[in-house]
Amino acid sequence: MMEYVSTRGNAPQMCFSQAVTCGLARDGGLLVPDHIPDLSDQLAALRKLPFLDLAYAIMRPYVDLPDRELTRLLRLSYGTFRDPHITPLVPVGDVHVLELFHGPTLAFKDVALQFLGNLFSSLLASSGDVLNIVAATSGDTGSAAIYGVRGKPGMQIFVMHPKGRTSRVQKLQMTTVLDDNVHNIAVDGTFDDCQHLVKSLFQDLAFRDQFHLGSVNSINWARVLAQITYFAYASLRLTDSERAARVRFSVPTGNFGDVFAGYVAARMGFPIAKLIVATNENDILTRFFQTGTYAATEVVSTMSPSMDIQVASNFERYLYYCLDCDGGQVMQSMQTFAKQRSITLPHCFPAGEEPLLDAGAADREATLATIRDTYQSTGYLLDPHTAVGYHVAQSWLHPDEPMVCLATAHPAKFPEAIREALGQDLAHHPVLDDLRDQPERCMDLAVDVDALKKLVARESARFFA
Q1: What is the side-by-side strand order in the sheet with 213-214?
Q2: Which residue segments constitute the domains of the chain, with CATH numbers given?
Q3: pLDDT less than 50: residues of the chain
Q4: Which residue from 9, 309, 324, 400 has the highest number of Cβ atoms inside 10 Å of its Cβ?
């Protein structure tokens, strides 16, 4: 059976169900599987499967659930999606756009968080335990997590977003959910501050145990596992239909979770030639893959707010594999980064080898131009995050390897950016239009760990009484 270990090498191994509910390893590291299964000899059979069956085949080696329960959870989770293909591929110019926004909140986070919410519910029903989920969001994770757990028994969720740094629609998708087990928190800081608050709570082991903390952020392995599915799905579809040997992906990213899922998919043997990390002006990851130095700077507010991140949580998982799964080296590197805000890892880039991961960035002007030019030439409307990926993809086109750009959100989530790019009010969706006159509930919080602890303790005593 698959076991899960810490990237920092100093925490007990655990099974999948334990790894899901605890979120972060007890030594502060992230949990990873003790091995990555190789499915390369099964690709011909996997290529014929619809999305749900492929997802089952990918997840089966990683999970400790009964077959029937895993099948039930997948059907329940993806039955909420508005497209029968779940994550359809759409040709747009010289790129295939992988639409990941057909879930309840119109963002790619639904693919993972619909599954994770139902998984939590299943595990709690079996154990009789309760769960306080604490999450940070730069925009889309919060609403997807809320829609994944709202109204479910045995759990409540505390979602922190950076005050004034999400789009208006992203905020409304969170604050208009009034279920008793949902707590929206506007933090007077950046997403990195929100993320720091989450990690601080999990690193207080006594508090974490007393209040049964769980995570839906991409530090939770189940998030990564669910996201592997669409990299596999797209790569198999295009190598079949396009008669190509391998596929390239351009991935708009901030916290590196999506790209890391693609990295695992490639290690599992799926036909992926290259993963291109696409960032906005918050380009710590682009600079790392170009120079080998991972150095944080100040967070810049952009029109693609879900990517306004400097410290990418899932980078530690990638670092673990770069350092040959040596938890001690990972611990030392992360401690150095915590002190100096910079580490250099040139040995992650083997000389003479074509790297699997590369990177590029798009600034505000490039993003606006990409939205405008793509719409004028193809009629397809890109949201600003997807536009970053589409722009960066143009530098990595290959005649024999189809390019896929991940469409991470529906453009209606960012109407201001669409109006600025096109001068027209074209970005609408009935689900989002209906939010504008709904009542809201949200509380303000300073960047204060003690204040957050008091809030969790108070609401836990009330909700689970």
Answers
A1: 213-214, 131-136, 155-162, 182-187, 443-445
A2: 89-106+221-430 (3.40.50.1100)
A3: none
A4: 309
